Each structure stands twice: as C-alpha cells, then as structure tokens.
Amino acid sequence: MDAKAAVKKAVKGDAAAFAQLIETKKAELYRIAYSYAKNRDDAMDIVGEAVYKAFVSVGSLRKPEYFNTWLTRILINCAVDHLNKAKKTVRTAGEVGNGALVEPGGAGGTEHEAIMDLYGALDRLDTKHRTVIILKFFHDLTLAEIARVLEWPVGTVKTYLYRALQALNISLKEGEEIE
Amino acid sequence: MSKDMDNLRQAYESIPVPGELDAVLAGAVQRGRREVRREMVKRNMVRSAAGFIVLFTALTITVNTVPAFAEALGELPLVGNLVRVLRLDKGTGSGGEITDGTQVGVGGIEQQGETEVLKLSFSEAGLPAETANYYEAEYREYPASLLFSIPGARGLALEEVFPDLAGSKLVKDVYRLVTLDDSCERFVITFKQPVETEIREYTDPARLELIIKAKTADNAAGPVYSLRSGSQRFGESIGVIEGVLRYEAGGRDVRMLKDAAGTYCVEEGYYATEAEAEARRQELRAAGIIDFELYIESRGPTDSPKVISE
C-alpha cells in the first residue's frame, strides 16, 4: 500500500494503515523528540503521546498529502510541552555536559562525542531556532513545508533560519542560498 | 552546506532508535483506539438522548392535541422507562436486578375498563429505588393465584400492601407468606377466576404494574385432588412443613395457601384423580420423611382450600 492510500485509510479509521504509516516515520519522530528531550525515555514518551494524539484526531485531517507535516507539528507541540514541564522539575544526578543524560545502551565512543557536540550546538538555540534547523538541515524540509509545520509565514521561517545559522557560527558555502 | 552542518547532521542521524519504541507506538495506537471508541459511544448517547427529546416532545404535543391518540396511548406503555414485559398465563417469569435491603410496597387496585392494575413499588432507605429488586413470579390455578418471591427484600409494607379489594372484580385476596429466610419476602395474589396476567417493569423510579384481565372460564374444568397439610396459624411451623415437603420430599409443586378461614396450609401438589393423590401420600409416608398428616381435598377452579383443623 502506498503512503497516500494508507493515509486515506487511516483518516477513515483504519488502525492498521495508521500503524503502517507510523512505522515508516518512527525513526524520524524519535530523533526529533530526542533532540528536544535529550534522553531516551522522555523521547519515547513524547513520541507515544504524539502518536496517540495523532490517532485520535487523524479523522479530522482534510488533506492527506499534508499528513507528514501535520504529524511533525503534533510531535513538536508535544516536545515543547514536555520541555515546558521539564523546566519545572529539578534535574537529578546522571546529567552531564550540556544537560544531556548518559544513556545506558545508547551511542558510545566517537558517536557519543558527536551527539554531545550536536547537543552543544543545539543548546545555543532557543526552541524555535532549534526546530527550524532540525527540520531544514536534518529532515530536508523546504521552507514552505517548515512554514506549514510551524504555521508561520515563509518569511518568518527564513529569518529564524538565518539567525540560527548565525548563532551556530555556521555560514553557507559560497553560492549556496536558502531557497 | 558547510562541513559543520554536515557533521551535525551525521551526529543527528547516529542517534540510535531504541527497540522499545515499537511497544510504545503499539501502546499509543491502542490507547488511541480506546479513546476513539469512548468518544463514539459518547456521541451515540448524545444522539440517542437528542432523538428521545425530539420523540418525547412530538409525543407530548400529539397527546395534547389529538384526543384519539391520547386514548390509544392509554393502552400502550410508551411513556416511562418500561424495561420488561412478562406474560404469565401459566408459568413463571423473573425480572429486576439482584440487590439487598429493598422495601416493597403495593399500591391499590386501579380499574381500567375490564382490566385491573396493581402497582408494586420499591424503596431503599426510604427513597424510591431506581431499579426493581429481583423478583420471581409464578402463576398457578386451583385457585388462580400469583406468587411473588422477592429475594433481597427486607420488608413488605403490609399496611400499603393489602389495599381495599372490595371494588375489585378479579382480585380476591393479597396475603403474605411465612418465609423462613430473613432476606426474602413472598406474597400471593389470589383471583376470583382464572386470569391473564402481565407484569410491566419500569425503572427510575422502580415499579411493577401487574395487569390483570379475566380469562374465559373453562366450564368443563373439573375438580382436582389436592394433597395438603392441615390448617395452621401464620408462623414458623407452617414454614417448616413447607420446607420438608419442598426440600426433603422433593415436591416440585409445593405451595403455601391461605384457607377459607384465614389460616394456612401447605399443598404438596394437586392431582387429576383421587387415586393419584393417594398414591403420592402413601409414597411419602413410606419414605418416612413426614411426621405430620397429609389430607386429600377435592377443589374446584375458584375454591379456596377448606379449613382442616387438627
């Protein structure tokens, strides 16, 4: 079954079709959630909550072609809610570096260092700038798609993107433009 | 894109996806399914309630504007929470819900043309109960009578139960039975002639309406031969006799009846011929189960048991 047909079925209440769609998107969803939560358990909670909310409301999705951006928006909203709640809790032992938790069974060695660098970079950004960077450079979304996910004008997305790159001290290659 | 961003992307893509995520996703979909089902049930309930309001409003308007409809409606149990209708021409039926501590009350008899209606109510701690207590009803003939057993009932409002029957064409008597079980109430309604009965059960508040209609008398019906105890006052000893005949002797048609003088007897059963009744009496005597006398009495369809003093 292709994705479009699966979305149409999911909208009509087909749980198996919905589960199939989620299966193809689960790694993307998890990594976005992990970028916000920075630990495995919270990231899984965020994804679980987002998938639950998506299942309950998928019947109201008017345009099946926007399923991915719609799902990503739900996930980001859940992640932001999670961050807001986490701010209210006291951080406990086990935290290292830039707020990342040491994961039992997680990435090790060089991979772990790379991920710590990633956190270091993303931590220099607030939630909105971080989101734009993740969607643009890690998920290859176009500005229009990011605008749809975040429900912002395209110009605003572009502005946030330039500011985020500035904060990361990353410049585009010569001749390269943000489309 | 710059090398720095490529490195960050590589780091991002190296974030391992845990195997436990699959279980989390399956759980989330399950939770979603439950929520969707709950919402559907809620929506359907709201729709049903709205439909009921529309129907009720239409019915109210029609009843108040079309006299013929109002008259016809009087014959039908459309309005109210009618939950069960039992017909008991000859046999048994049950209804209500199992509960405990209910008080049972019986209202007066209402005449509705050729039909008479006897109403039973249920209360708990002085307040009207929402659902009728579990009840069993059994219609028998010789004489035509209806036995109500209400397990879980802890009281029978006697003063209310036995209304003035002087105006009734069909109901001869209503009386309570001795029941050697504190958690059960029983009473019998006897009729002046064979009747057709129907029980309509309502909720919120709980009530039973016993609809009674005369049945065409079978003039060819001859007498039966009742095998019964002697007459006893209302009390424990008549209850013991009933227990012996029902449980020790295995009588399937055992019943307690009030006799013509207001005392009570227990009937083991009735038989088509005197010989059959006699055979059963000898059988019970031979088994050595009974230590009281049993009598054979000839009785017509509308006769009460005679007084047999011991």
Short characterization:
Chain A is mostly helical. Chain A has helices at 3-11, 15-37, 40-57, 67-87, 109-122, 127-138, 143-150, 154-167; strands at 95-96, 100-101.
Describe the secondary structure blueprint for this structure:
The complex is a heterodimer of chains A (179) and B (310).
Chain A: H1 3-11, H2 15-37, H3 40-57, H4 67-87, E1 95-96, E2 100-101, H5 109-122, H6 127-138, H7 143-150, H8 154-167
Antiparallel strand pairs in A: 1-2
Chain B: H1 3-13, H2 21-65, H3 67-73, E1 81-87, E2 91-95, E3 102-112, E4 115-124, E5 127-128, E6 135-140, E7 145-151, E8 153-156, H4 158-161, E9 171-176, E10 184-191, E11 195-203, E12 207-214, E13 224-229, H5 236-248, E14 255-258, E15 264-271, H6 274-287, E16 294-299
Helix pairs in contact in B: 2-3
What sort of overall outline of chain A do the alpha carbons produce when their principal axes are compared? globular
Q: Number of DSSP helices of chain B?
A: 6
Spatial extent as radius of gyration of chain B = 31 Å
Count of DSSP strands of chain A: 2
- Roughly how much helix do the residues of chain B carry, as a percent range? 25-40%
Largest interface: A-B, 44 and 31 residues
For the biggest sheet of chain A, the summary is: 2 strands, antiparallel
Fourth CATH level, the homologous superfamily of the largest domain in chain A: RNA polymerase sigma factor, region 2, helix turn helix motif
Q: What's the number of structural domains of chain B?
A: 3
Q: Tell me the major beta sheet of chain B.
A: 7 strands, mixed
Q: What structural class results from the helix and strand content of chain B?
A: alpha+beta
Q: How much of the polypeptide of chain B forms β-strand, as a percent range?
A: 25-35%
Q: Name the helix and strand elements of chain A from N-terminus to C-terminus, one letter apiece.
A: HHHHEEHHHH
Provide a count of the helices of chain A: 8
